[in-house]
Each structure stands twice: as structure tokens, then as C-alpha cells.
Amino acid sequence: MPGVRGNATAGPGGGPRVVILQVNLNRNRAAQDLLTQTTAAQRAGILIVSEPSGAGKQGSWLVDRWGDAAITATNNLPGTFTLEGRGEGFVWARTSGFTIFSCYFSPNVAISDFMAQLDDLETIIRSTRGRIIVAGVFNAKSPSWGSSQLDKRGQAVAELLARLDLLPINEGSASTWQRASLGSSSVIDLTAGTLGIAVEMTGWRVLEDESLSDHRYIFMVWTPRTRPRARTPCSIEKG
User: Fold this and answer.
1) CA distance 71 to 59
2) Which residues form the Endonuclease/exonuclease/phosphatase domain (predicted)?
3) Fewest CB atoms less than 10 Å from the CB: which of 18, 190, 193, 203?
């Protein structure tokens, strides 16, 4: 598969500064197209998407078994980006610095089914070596990632993070989901990581930019504390 040349900007330590964007697109083609523009404007290197449109399941996109979670890299990510596996509601890939999981858990499934999905995710994460980022829409609320409420799903996810030594990377309490017609908003999008990678993730914030979705863009930057031994072009491998 053709490689994608990396051209990430340098961070303060001399290593790459990689922008990561996270968003739920509600399977909307217009939102998918707008993401392409936002990616260019933000010079993003990794895109984590929940509920992609049909266009977001083609080309370089890596997608889970159900078509609910997707992830890809752009030419702003140096090094490799390789598909590691696909689950039901999550897909994961390995970069030169960490393994990253893109997740989507529907709010419409029974709590027993949700717990079963979390069990599957936990099994895979436990078998994954090295530094890990887990990101996506869990449709779960907990003060641990900025929500003012704690629900059953939020309690389950918080306990999962604790068992796996994953730290929430979310900062602040800005709503990641909002529906003006209902006057409703909440924080149901989550980013978490192992300690080594969590401390290298900075600038996590909810963007004001239009997304054409009821979820807002989440922006963060990965800046390695140590300079990598080699800077190689990024290539995306689907395995």
C-alpha cells in the first residue's frame, strides 16, 4: 500500500508535534466532508471518528466490524500506522509511539450488552503491549471526564479505566454533545491513556468550529518528551 509522507511540525523537545482530532459524525456525508476541511485547517495527523458516513469507511479508513468506529492517519503523522484489529464497536491501530483505539458504544443497547462490549474491549487492551490511547463515544457520564452526572454506564467505564490504569485526558467540562432543539448537552466523548502517553497529550479541548453534527470536534496534541531515533514517512497498512 502506498505510504503517506509525514510532515509533522516539531514540538519543544525536537520531536514531532501531532494534532489528533476526535468527533462523532452521525453517519452524515456532509459532516464527513467538512472533517476533511477541518483536518487540513488544523494540520491533524490522526482522526478518530465515531459513526462515520459511508465515505468514512473507504480508502485509508480503518473501521470496526459494525462500521461504528473508524480511524485513519494523514501525512502529518510521521512513522507507521498499522491496523492491529477490529472488534464490535472498536478498532485499533499501532503508530510508531503508541496503540490507539477508536470506540463507539451505542446508547440504545441494553446495559448487559454494553457491559459485554466493555469486557471485549478490556480483553484486547490487556493483551496490548506498550502505551495506549482509548478514545471515542461511550455514551457514558462521569465526573471523571467532565460530566456533572454519574450514570451506570459511566460507573462501568470509570471502573474499566481504573482496572487498566488508564487516565482520562479530557480537560474541563465543556459539552462534547449538544442538541439545541432539546436544550440538552452532555460530556459523553472520552479520551484516556496510559500514564506514559497521557502526560504527552496536551491542549485537549472542545472546539467551537462547526461540525455539522450534534457532537463537537475534540482537539489534542501529542508531543513526545524524547526525540524519536528516526523520522520515517507514514504508511498506512490494513494488514
Assistant:
1) 11
2) 99-219
3) 203
